[in-house]
Amino acid sequence: MIVGSWAVFAFLLGAVPVGPILARYLADVALQSEGSRNTGATNVARVVGWKAGAVTLLADILKGAVGAGGALWLSGSADAAWLCGVLAVLGHCYTPYLHWRGGKGVATSLGVLVVTATPVALSTWGVWFATVALTRRSSVGALCALPTVVGLTAWWATDQVGWAMLLAVVVLVRHRDNITRLLSGTEHGLERPT
Length: 194
Description:
Helix content is 74%, strand content 0%. By secondary structure, it is mostly helical.
């Protein structure tokens, strides 16, 4: 019962649209109408500035970490932690506060991994960072990180690989428009799109 209540909380916490709130408060901007129109940290950095982007990134990571960490603390179960973490990511991606349209789930997924599979989180962040540094495209970093998450979880905690695959599928689905733009050569870089 307690874990079930926490699962609902994790979803609603994940759904809090930090990026749009900061963009409205700091710059009086509707984030979904600017830049790439995404609600995540990369677009906040493009539209509002890197400091606001960094705050958004940290907050989105914390949403996943709190969702998963609270479940782990309450139940002692890795499966409960993964479940509530995935629900936090789904809340972020499909937030009821913005008519079920949210972010891509990358930062919130990282927060989940910090709690459930810390070595995987560190390695995945390294892959994301290196890829973004080379390509200047956050989406490419995310797409390269996904197989890292699944592969390293399969090696580090075989019994949890199903959860890692579910997390990866959610993020992959949220990047389908990015994949289309990458294939057509029109994907946004880190700079503000024109």
